[in-house]
Amino acid sequence: MARNELRPVVKLRSTAGTGYTYVTRKNRRNDPDRLTLRKYDPMAGRHVDFREER
């Protein structure tokens, strides 16, 4: 099954300013806006918001 652009790979960058990133996939039909997830940032040592960058 071929991968299409309905679920693109997005990079999530930490809002703590450490430069740490996560890579994930998102469903563009359900989440057309930029994705924001609260995840652990090992450089900051705590949970922070991670925003989708383009």
UniProtKB/TrEMBL annotation:
Transmembrane segments: none
Keywords: Ribonucleoprotein, Ribosomal protein
PANTHER family: 54S RIBOSOMAL PROTEIN L39, MITOCHONDRIAL, LARGE RIBOSOMAL SUBUNIT PROTEIN BL33M
Name of the protein: Large ribosomal subunit protein bL33
GO (cellular component) term, any one: ribosome
Keyword Ribonucleoprotein on entry: yes
Domain of life: Bacteria
Keyword Ribosomal protein: yes
UniProt family annotation: Belongs to the bacterial ribosomal protein bL33 family.
Pfam families in alphabetical order: Ribosomal_L33
Provenance organism: Streptomyces ossamyceticus
UniProt xrefs under PROSITE patterns: RIBOSOMAL_L33
